[in-house]
Amino acid sequence: MGHWNARGGRAGLRMGVGLLVAALLVVGLTPAAARAQALTQTRPESVGLSSERLARLGRQLDEYAEKRQLAGGVALVARKGQVAYVKAFGQRDIEAGAPMREDSIFRIASQSKAVISVAAMILQEEGKLLTTDPVGKYIPEFAETTVAVPKEGGGYDVVKAKRPVNIRDLLTHTSGVSYGGGIAKDKWEEARITGYYFADRDEPIAATVARMGKLPFDAHPGEAYIYGYNTDILGVVVEKASGKPLDQFLQTALFEPLGMTDTHFYLPPNKSDRLAVVYAPTGPTGLKKSPDGGSDGQGAYVSGPRKSFSGGAGLLSTARDYGRFLQMMLNGGELDGHRILSRKTVELMTVNHLANVKFPWTTGVGFGLGFSVLQDVGARGTPGSVGEYGWGGAYHSTYWVDPREELVVVYFTQLIPAGGIDDHGKLRTLIYQAIID
C-alpha cells in the first residue's frame, strides 16, 4: 500500500514539537528529512475508526462480487492523513480469473475533472491566467459563442451568447455547454462531438474543442448548471496557458510531486495487465464484459491513437494515486513537503459558487471550482458533513473529502450502466458508522 503524509493542520502528528525533534535526533533524522518521510497504513483505531465496524463494509463489498452485481473494485479510506482501510475485492477480469488488486488501474472518467480543475488553479497561482479571463483569450473560437433557443411549435433559433464564456464558467459547469445532447444535438452529431469518450479520437483535444466553439450551446453563460464538455475545454486552456501538452503539464505539475506513478491518459504497455475490465449488468445478479471499442467498452487506452487528452473524462488511475491527490487537497494544498496549491485556493475551490444558479441533481448540494459541495446534510439526507466535497465517474467510481472528519474516501469499480445497485449508499453509511472517536 502507498504511503501517506499526515502534515497539514489537524492532520499533523499529535505530539509536542520538542518531543518530535528529540525523537528525530535519536533516529538520526533532521526535521526536514522527517517531513519528507510518509506515513504507512495504520490501524483504524489509531485514527478513530473501528476495525470491527469497518469489517461490515468488507463483507458487503464481498457480497456484491459474490452475487455478480459487481466484478470487483477497490475501496480506500484515509483519516487524519493515514490509510485506515483499503480493500481490493472481487476480480479485475472474471473471464481470465484475475483477482482485483490494490494496484489495479481504473478508468476514472469524470474524476479527471478535479485534476484538471486543480491544474487550472496552479496556473492562476503562477500568474498565467485568471478564472475571470474569457476563454476566447486562449481559444479564439470561443471569443463569440452562440446559443440554441427553442421556437414555438418546434425547432430552434441560434442567437449570440449574452456574454463571453469565462474560465470560472468552465470550472462551475455554467458555460452552457452540454455533452452534445441538447436542443441543437443535430449540429453536435453532425460534428461528431457527442458523449464523454475521447480515447479513440485521432485528433488532438485542442482541435476537437476548437470545433465545439462554433456549435450552438444549450444556455447562455452563467445562467444554468449544464454538465458537459466544460473541463475538456478547460484542459485546452491549461495547454495554451502553460505552453505544454496537457499530459506533460500534469506530469510535472501534479503527478511527479504527488507520487502519482500510475495515473495516465493512455497506459504504458507494461501496465496493460493491471487495467480492470469494464462490465455491464445482465440483470439483478449477472454481468457481461462490455464490447471493445465503445465508450462503455474496454477502450483505446492501450492501443488507441494516444492523441486526445480528455480533461473531462480521459484519465486512468489507482485508488492509491487518487487518494494521494485528495489528501493533498485535504491538507490545504500540500503533500509530502510538496506545495501544489495555497490553502486559500483550496478554500476557494471547495465552496459553493452557484449563487444564482440551482444545482439540478441533489438537494442540499452546490458546486465549487471542480467539485460538488455539501451545504445541508439534512436536505441531502445521507451521512456526511457540511463542507464535504467530491464527485464520481461514468464507470461507477466515486470519491469524497470530508474536512470536518479529516476523511478521504476513494471507491473504484468498472460498471456501466449501474442502475439498481446500492453500493454507493452503503459505502457511505458503512464508513461513517465506523467512526468511534
Describe the fold and architecture:
It is a single chain. The protein has 437 residues and is an alpha+beta fold. The chain is globular. The strands form 5 sheets. Strands 3-2-1-17-16-15-14-13 form an 8-stranded antiparallel beta sheet, with helices on both faces. The chain has a 3-stranded mixed beta sheet with strand order 6-5-7, with no helix packed on it. The protein has a two-stranded antiparallel sheet with strand order 4-10. A hairpin with a 4-residue loop joins strand 2 and strand 3 (98-99). It has 13 helices and 17 strands. It starts with 16 loop residues before the first helix and ends in a 5-residue tail after the last helix.
Helix content: 25-40%
Distance between the termini: 25 Å
Count the DSSP helices: 13
- Uncertain stretches of 5 or more adjacent residues: 1-39
* Mass-distribution shape: globular
Order of helices and strands: HHHEEEEHEEHHHEHHEEEHEEHEEHEEEH
Q: Mean of residue pLDDT?
A: 91
DSSP strand tally: 17
